[in-house]
Amino acid sequence: FKICRSVSELKEMNSKAKTIERDLELRHLPKQIVSKLGNILQVDHSWKDVMCLIPDNPWVPGQDLPSGNFSQKYSSEQISLVADECVRSGRTGFEVLIEEWGTSGFIRPKVMDLIKLLKQAGLERAADYLEKTSVDKMTATFSRVFKINTCSNAVGFEQDTRETLSNDTFETLKETNIPFIPFDLILDSIRNGCKIGQGAFGFVYKSHLLIEEEKKTVAIKMLSENEAISRDLKKEDLFKNEVEILSKCNHKNIIKLEGYSFRNTELGLIYSYMKNGSLYDRLSCINDTPPLSWKQRLDIGKGAAEGIVYLHTNFNPPLVHRDIKSPNILLDENFIPKLGDFGIVRLGSYGKHTSTSIRTTAVMLELLTGLQYYDETRENWDILSYVQEWEGDEVELLDTKAGDWDIEIGRKLFDYTETCTREKRERPDMVNALNMLSSIIDNR
């Protein structure tokens, strides 16, 4: 008796069934249903009414439709482009719309979302047809698959992973102690949460998840579809590296990975939620947050350095982060810094790793001055060059938003940053750099 089926088998079963699930993504609608709805909505070009009602962020599929004024996902120009494509290809407007909307976003629209839109547009004939050909529950097969897939050694996990991930990634995931979270739970969690950030590596959502029988506030990062930083390091590599590295880390200044999830090419990483966001955001006072005090800044700088030294000294061979910067330093509810974004961490040699002290020094200068690392409006764009070329007293650069600095400590910290940016042979490694920093901060 085979309990778990592959994703492709389940999709085929759904497409052949007499009824479809309302939880089915629109991109998987059977062709005959798409064709029928296309013909119904081609009358008076009613598909345009539907397209006008599709909301944009922060709404995501699965939520109730917004009332009153809302941001539209598609502009009038985009609706015209769909109409032009209909003329060119001979397809109905609905067929073109489903092809576009049905494949957009990390959380893709489902049958239930389309039913709501059709009703809101007053298109009762189309809504009635879709309701009669769908049922308001998930199939028992899907339910069994994701109930079984509650840990990384489940049968269903192994079968689906082998279909979607490489053998190397599969073996890595099996060996970690990080929980596998069923992908449907991730989608439900995101629908009930909110987007809190996005970057080159994807979107981040704040939400709540039940992980190993404990309800936790988490940040869910969905890796971008085109995630890649080089020809040799693709989205799956970043995913595997992050899970593998963070499963080995246990330090107060390293972000905790609470779980991971995937379905086909969609990959998600679940972290402990960091209430105070990134160091970059707090230095920039994003959303009118109060400035960090100078004492908080010193503690953050030291904590980040302690996290780096942990990576360099507690692994054999050492781990080199390679992307230390203020956006990748996260702050918890007590402003304790946590290093994040471990996707491009690599194994290092047993050398001094003095290049890391340069990047850590740039972060310290951001803490001291409140200036961004890179600013095209400055004569010297990067902060290291800007401070080195400063002709006045360096303490004049101390960020006044941080309060009344201890000037003597400020001078010592600028001297510290100068030492850490010397020529490679004269530059301290991170262990010695941390000792120097601690001697300044601990004696304040």
From TrEMBL:
Uppermost EC category: transferase
Membrane-traversing stretches: none
Gene3D superfamilies: Death Domain, Fas, Transferase(Phosphotransferase) domain 1
Residues noted as binding ATP in the record, renumbered to the chain: K221
Repeat is among the record's keywords: no
GO biological process: positive regulation of defense response; positive regulation of intracellular signal transduction; positive regulation of metabolic process; response to stress
SMART domains according to UniProt: S_TKc (SM00220)
Domain of life the protein comes from: Eukaryota
Protein kinase domain: residues covered: 190-444
Pfam families: Death_2, PK_Tyr_Ser-Thr
EC code: 2.7.11.1
Keyword list, A-Z: ATP-binding, Kinase, Nucleotide-binding, Receptor, Serine/threonine-protein kinase, Transferase
UniProt key word Isomerase: no
Catalyzed reaction equations: L-threonyl-[protein] + ATP = O-phospho-L-threonyl-[protein] + ADP + H(+); L-seryl-[protein] + ATP = O-phospho-L-seryl-[protein] + ADP + H(+)
Any GO molecular function: ATP binding
SUPFAM superfamilies cross-referenced by the UniProt entry: DEATH domain, Protein kinase-like (PK-like)
Similarity comment: Belongs to the protein kinase superfamily.
UniProt-recorded name of the protein: non-specific serine/threonine protein kinase
Species annotation: Armadillidium nasatum
